[in-house]
């Protein structure tokens, strides 16, 4: 890949911005026409203008839009606050003022090309019975190069720091990719007898040992030498951005790969959106728009973090082999003792297959058997482990009870 590819992409987006802005302005004028007139005469024109105005990615985090939560006999509004932050991430608290005291939970979001808002549904559900915090990662294209690097070790360090902010008897839930760092952080904190080591750790669909039943994602990560990933997927943040010249795995490349895997479905979705907009079917159009507002809100990945993950997690399998280190120290999951451990997997998960997360149970030999829980959810894929109907009705009640038993 040309080291200027990201710069070229950004230049193209900047040059075509007037067309999108123009389409948005024209659409706003079209909507000023008398009710019914624009639908009948200019419906398709309006639909076309709206699609034109939406034809770009965004690098800004969408809103969480968390709704009031029922606790006891009343609803509590949810207030977002940031009690602690670093250049690379915020510890975001979903505060319910005046609500009864509940177990504190740190929800560890993946750094995988999308923002932590991907877990808004997980947050909404957890808030019923927990005081919820989330790792709200910042887009590296907005982080000046002077702030240093962010690799797998820095990710783990952030989790330890965030848990320290929550304080003793708090709990940690890691979703997908950060399960390795979460387990490493808990091992280090346990070994140090850290005052804020988690009371429980839940790992959901995480790649603890990707040697077990490798998926296509795992196979791709091992199909090429590390240098191939460095040469073909890493680029420099454009000079227009605050993070100019920082090395990243660009978000636009990631989303392009995701779209190409299901191109026909995405084309059909946009054709359907055009028709719904033209016919004035607002509800159906909004459903599609909401999905793509999140899907096309992309985050670059710091190059160090991406390469460390490919090498340490997917190619060399350091954690399950007892070779992972943190600041020169061996990471020893067996040192975890005074902590509950829950692992959750999905039957149809084609990203993190059955057994890869369960492997954490064998590594944590110091955890008493009665404090270990494993759940394999039938009928769900990767995202169904932490979102959707079966997450709400079948997985969450088990997780809630596990956390409360360990509080």
UniProtKB/TrEMBL annotation:
<dbReference type="InterPro" id="IPR009656">
    <property type="entry name" value="PHB_depo_C"/>
</dbReference>
<feature type="domain" description="PHB de-polymerase C-terminal">
    <location>
        <begin position="205"/>
        <end position="406"/>
    </location>
</feature>
<dbReference type="InterPro" id="IPR010915">
    <property type="entry name" value="PHB_depoly_PhaZ"/>
</dbReference>
<dbReference type="Pfam" id="PF06850">
    <property type="entry name" value="PHB_depo_C"/>
</dbReference>
<dbReference type="InterPro" id="IPR029058">
    <property type="entry name" value="AB_hydrolase_fold"/>
</dbReference>
<dbReference type="InterPro" id="IPR051321">
    <property type="entry name" value="PHA/PHB_synthase"/>
</dbReference>
<protein>
    <submittedName>
        <fullName>Polyhydroxyalkanoate depolymerase</fullName>
    </submittedName>
</protein>
């Amino acid at each position: 890949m040309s080291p200027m590819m990201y710069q070229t992409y950004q230049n193209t987006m900047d040059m075509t911005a007037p067309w999108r802005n123009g389409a948005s302005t024209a659409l706003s004028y079209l909507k000023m026409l008398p009710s019914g007139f624009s639908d009948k005469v200019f419906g398709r024109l309006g639909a076309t203008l709206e699609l034109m105005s939406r034809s770009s990615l965004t690098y800004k985090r969408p809103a969480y839009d968390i709704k009031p939560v029922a606790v006891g006999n009343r609803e509590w509004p949810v207030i977002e606050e940031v009690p602690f932050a670093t250049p690379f991430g915020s510890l975001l608290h979903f505060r319910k003022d005046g609500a009864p005291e509940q177990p504190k939970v740190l929800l560890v979001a993946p750094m995988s090309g999308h923002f932590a808002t991907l877990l808004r549904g997980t947050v909404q559900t957890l808030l019923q019975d927990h005081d919820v915090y989330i790792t709200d990662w910042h887009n590296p294209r907005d982080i000046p190069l002077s702030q240093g690097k962010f690799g797998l070790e820095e990710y783990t360090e952030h989790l330890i720091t965030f848990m320290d902010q929550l304080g003793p008897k708090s709990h940690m839930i890691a979703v997908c990719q950060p399960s390795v760092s979460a387990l490493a952080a808990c091992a280090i904190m346990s070994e140090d007898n850290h005052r804020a080591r988690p009371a429980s750790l839940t790992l959901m669909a995480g790649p603890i040992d990707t040697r077990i039943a490798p998926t296509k994602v795992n196979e791709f990560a091992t199909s090429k030498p590390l240098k191939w990933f460095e040469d073909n997927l890493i680029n420099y943040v454009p000079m227009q951005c605050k993070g100019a010249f920082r090395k990243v795995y660009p978000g636009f490349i990631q989303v392009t790969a995701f779209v190409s895997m299901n191109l026909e479905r995405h084309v059909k979705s946009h054709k359907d959106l055009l028709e719904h907009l033209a016919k004035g079917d607002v509800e159906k159009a909004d459903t599609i728009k909401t999905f793509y507002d999140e899907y096309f809100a992309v985050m670059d990945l710091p190059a160090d973090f991406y390469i460390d993950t490919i090498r340490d997690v997917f190619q060399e399998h350091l954690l399950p082999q007892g070779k992972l280190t943190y600041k020169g120290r061996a990471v020893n999951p067996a040192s975890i003792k005074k902590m509950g451990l829950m692992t959750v997997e999905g039957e149809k998960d084609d990203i993190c297959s059955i057994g890869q997360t369960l492997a954490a149970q064998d590594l944590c030999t110091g955890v008493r058997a009665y404090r270990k829980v494993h759940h394999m959810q039938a009928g769900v894929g990767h995202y169904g482990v932490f979102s959707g109907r079966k997450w709400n009705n079948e997985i969450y009640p088990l997780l809630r009870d596990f956390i409360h038993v360990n509080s």
